[in-house]
């Protein structure tokens, strides 16, 4: 397994694979790898000759009051996991390599995709995500990009960026991987207290309650969201940041539940921000 930090060196490696007619799959991460990331890696390996994983905690997507400094960094453990998964190469650039002196270009995302859900609470976040992923794609030059459904708004934004900028890469979205009790896997879960970890599955429990109400015939989004909110608010330690019903592709708010609607939420527990979603 090769571990490379220089974007130009990685481009050279990718072009060697292309010359050898090998397909390249790419899984971008910020490290602190868990089974959710490894599920993406395994999906990537099944379809591609070369699997590439990036590990980079991107400062552009963190606001001034967010947890950039606290975000877990476990590089050696991550590399050991990827070695065991038989990944061909890992891209581990530094801030200086990603944003060298004089760097002055950014990708700006506008419109409904960044009008709701996480965007109002994280100004500039998705521009930071879009900018770093475009740079990572430029270095890796993959055929396929692998993303997880848990980060649904990020997925929608990146699919639009790839389409709008004519970036020739196929986007593969894999289902959310969950713990045994339903909690969506996230690198931030490890920052929960023992008590918080016991409470956190209420988010998915509430989403499933919402889906069951829809299955019983309720079609008004307001009613479904109200029942979901009741379940979560029974846990006093959980503070809902948002709870919305949106079109899964456009992320536009909806008032009637139909197939293809996504119910998404963000909540704070132990000062840790958790997100989850379910598609009807």
Describe, in plain words, how this protein is organized in 3D.
Helix 1 packs across helix 5 (125-140), helix 5 (125-140) packs across helix 6 and helix 8 packs antiparallel against helix 9. The protein folds into two domains: 2-174, HUPs (Rossmann fold, 3-Layer(aba) Sandwich), CATH 3.40.50.620; 187-274, Pantoate--beta-alanine Ligase, Chain: A,domain 2, CATH 3.30.1300.10. A six-stranded parallel beta sheet has the order 1-4-3-2-5-6, with helices on both faces. A three-stranded antiparallel beta sheet has the order 7-8-9, covered by helices on one side. The N and C termini lie far apart (40 Å). The chain is globular. The longest helix has 16 residues, at 125-140. Helices cover 36% and strands 19% of the residues. The mean pLDDT is 96. With 280 residues, the chain is an alpha/beta fold.
Output the helix-strand order: EHEHEHEHHEHEHHHEEE
Subunit arrangement of the protein: single chain
Calculate the terminal CA-CA distance, rounded to whole Å.
Answer: 40 Å
Q: Percent helix among the residues?
A: 25-40%
Largest sheet: 6 strands, parallel
């Amino acid at each position: 397994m090769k571990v490379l930090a220089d974007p130009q060196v990685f481009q050279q490696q990718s072009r060697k694979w292309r010359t050898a007619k090998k397909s390249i799959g790419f899984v971008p991460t910020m490290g602190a790898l868990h089974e959710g990331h490894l599920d993406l890696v395994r999906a990537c390996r099944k379809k591609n000759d070369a699997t590439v994983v990036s590990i980079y905690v991107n400062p552009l997507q963190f606001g001034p009051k967010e947890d950039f400094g606290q975000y877990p960094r476990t590089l050696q453990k991550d590399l050991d996991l990827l070695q065991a998964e038989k990944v061909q190469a890992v891209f581990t650039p530094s801030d200086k390599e990603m944003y060298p002196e004089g760097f002055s270009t950014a990708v700006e995302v506008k419109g409904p995709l960044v009008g709701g859900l996480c965007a109002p609470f994280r100004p500039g976040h998705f521009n930071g995500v879009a900018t770093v992923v475009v740079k990572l794609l430029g270095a890796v030059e993959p055929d396929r990009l692998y993303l997880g459904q848990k980060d649904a708004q990020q997925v929608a934004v990146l699919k639009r960026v790839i389409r709008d900028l004519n970036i020739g890469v196929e986007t593969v979205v894999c289902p959310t991987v969950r713990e045994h009790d339903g909690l969506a896997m996230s690198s931030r879960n490890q920052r929960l207290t023992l008590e918080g970890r016991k409470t956190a599955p209420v988010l998915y429990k509430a989403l499933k309650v919402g889906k069951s109400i829809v299955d019983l015939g309720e079609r008004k989004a307001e009613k479904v969201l109200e029942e979901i909110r009741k379940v979560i608010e029974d846990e006093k330690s959980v503070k809902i940041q948002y709870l919305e019903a949106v079109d899964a592709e456009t992320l536009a708010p909806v008032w009637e539940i139909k197939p293809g609607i996504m119910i998404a939420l963000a909540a704070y527990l132990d000062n840790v921000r958790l997100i989850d979603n379910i598609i009807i």
